[in-house]
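User: Can you help me understand a structure? I only have the sequence.
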Amino acid sequence: MTRQRLFQLAFWAALIGACVMATLPKPPHTPLDPYGDKVQHMAAFAVLAALSALGYSRTPLMRLAERLSFLAALIELVQSMPVLHRDCDIRDWIADTLAIGATLLLVALARRLRGGATWSRGDAPA
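Assistant: Let's start by predicting it. Here is the structure, written out as tokens:
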């Protein structure tokens, strides 16, 4: 099994785990609980962004950012369902999107230092 395939499997496992945790009516306690909900959101989506960039290295980073941000918005929409007893908060989506952007920016910088493609088709943002 290649390293890229391993990162892809880790990405999908983390994605499923994040979606399950986000939609449980009463999620279990985590070590990040003392730091608040936003830190948990940002940590989850930073990990997803890093794993997606490592597992799908030929996919433009902007596309990864768009898809992950859409997933974050979809999770917030699902959390608005009364049966889940969760809260839909646009600030959670903003925190998720900021974490995605920051993580993928670091990936782009690392790729640029290594001489690889950065944002889309090898071009840096203008």
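Now, to help you interpret it: Residues 3-24+42-114 form one domain. The radius of gyration is 15 Å. Let me know which part you'd like to focus on.
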